[in-house]
Specification:
This protein has nine helices and no strands. It has one domain. The two termini are 21 Å apart. With 264 residues, it is mainly alpha-helical.
Amino acid sequence: MNNYFKINYLESLLLILAFIALNFFNLILRKLLIAINLPESMIFSISYAFPFIFLFLFISHQAQKKNLIIELSFKVSPWYIYLITFCMMFCMIILNDCITSFVPKEGPLLGNMYKEIEDFLKEESKNPIPFFSTTVLLAPICEEVLFRGIILNGMLKNKIHPAKAILFSSFLFGLTHMNPWQFVGGFLIGSFIGFIYFTTNSIIDCILLHVFNNAFAIFAMFFFMKNEEVFSEQFNFWLILILIISCLIIPVGSVFLLKERKKI
């Protein structure tokens, strides 16, 4: 019988606290990279990947010591599954944007925090190739392997109820973003991707959905910067209509995917 890697609530939380601590260490790492005159185009990608690489090596080492198998399924789902899941993901993105819009962006604390995030994104986007490749390619791979492939999968192997495992791993996913807007988005989108992992058992599906979400977010960010007034004046009706349709598509698609899972 295979001895699979398993993880519980406390171990998952400690792992993510270690991840957050490593991200604070990134401030020192970035200064070191600047000090050795490394191109700014590389610093963003290296500093982003560092905490993940460190944790992956640590987890791999611990698993080898205990002869544990970290099972990651890279199977490709049937085409109609992608058609359904990507349609559902688009609906989730719209719902997420609507829900996160209720989080205040003004005030002495949240206002300054939101401005710092905006300034950071504008500064990093000045180097479009590393910014795009890190956000749309590197981030989905690293984050899905950690949060769905290791944490969620490990909790499921530990016989934790799927709903509890999905919600808790998504809570941790939101927590690592360290701001209220991305926490809400991380929890909502993470819960959906976690559900997809549970139904398809494919980390590839999760990565592709995450790539789509991040690419859409970057496109929207640049589009709204240039067309915010036009959008607010012309598209409110269509946004409400899409929200209504989304609230219908997501549950219908979820029921279909659960039925498909039982056939496997």
